[in-house]
């Protein structure tokens, strides 16, 4: 069996929720694009994306927040990208070793929490989203695969 090539993109959507009297924060994301994938065992595909949180207010204002990511089409133990009836499992992590699944705090997942103090009227903090497709998914066909997830910042 000849290995196929896959073009894979995970779209991260963003939203935020504010409490009265705190700086206003918004979130934006860059998609996770794996590019080509080799399905042979032992050849995982790793890449990363970025979640950016921008808070605005008065210099010296402080706010804490947490960042969650939904499971998308799969589950937190195996997120799933699809192309027609074919699927590839992957996951998103908050650490470069790909051991801490970034989710919503349920099912063994972790969230990212931070507290920021504005040094001017606006502060942007970037967070790396690490991602991995495990090797050995030989039943998937070469095609374009995608999944859509929701990123939420609660502060």
Write a structural description:
There is one protein chain. 0% of the residues lie in helices and 54% in strands. It is mainly β and 155 residues long. The chain has a single domain, classed as Fimbrial-type adhesion domain (Immunoglobulin-like, Sandwich), CATH 2.60.40.1090. The radius of gyration is 17 Å and the shape is elongated. The protein is built from no helices and ten strands.
Summing up helix and strand content along with how strands pair, one would put the structural category as mainly beta
Low-pLDDT runs: 1-8
| Distinct helical segment count | 0
* CATH topology category name: Immunoglobulin-like
Strand content: over 45%
Radius of gyration: 17 Å
Biggest sheet: strands, sense, closure?
5 strands, mixed
Number of strands: 10
Choose one word for the global shape: elongated
Specify the helix fraction band.
Answer: under 10%
In the residues, how many domains can be counted? Answer: 1
The string of secondary-structure elements, in order, is: EEEEEEEEEE
């Amino acid at each position: 069996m000849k290995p196929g090539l896959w073009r894979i993109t995970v779209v991260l959507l963003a939203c935020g929720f504010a409490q009265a009297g705190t700086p206003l924060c918004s979130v934006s994301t860059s998609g996770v694009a794996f590019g080509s994938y080799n399905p042979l065992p032992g050849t995982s595909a790793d890449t990363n994306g970025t979640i950016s949180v921008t808070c605005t207010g008065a210099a010296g204002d402080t706010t804490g927040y947490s960042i969650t990511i939904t499971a998308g089409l799969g589950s937190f133990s195996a997120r799933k990208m699809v192309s027609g009836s074919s699927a590839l499992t992957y996951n998103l992590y908050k650490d470069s070793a790909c051991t801490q699944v970034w989710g919503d705090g349920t099912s063994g997942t972790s969230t990212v929490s931070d507290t920021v103090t504005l040094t001017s009227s606006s502060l942007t903090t970037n967070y790396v989203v690490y991602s991995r497709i495990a090797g050995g998914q030989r039943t998937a066909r070469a095609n374009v695969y995608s999944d859509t997830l929701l990123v939420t910042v609660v502060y």
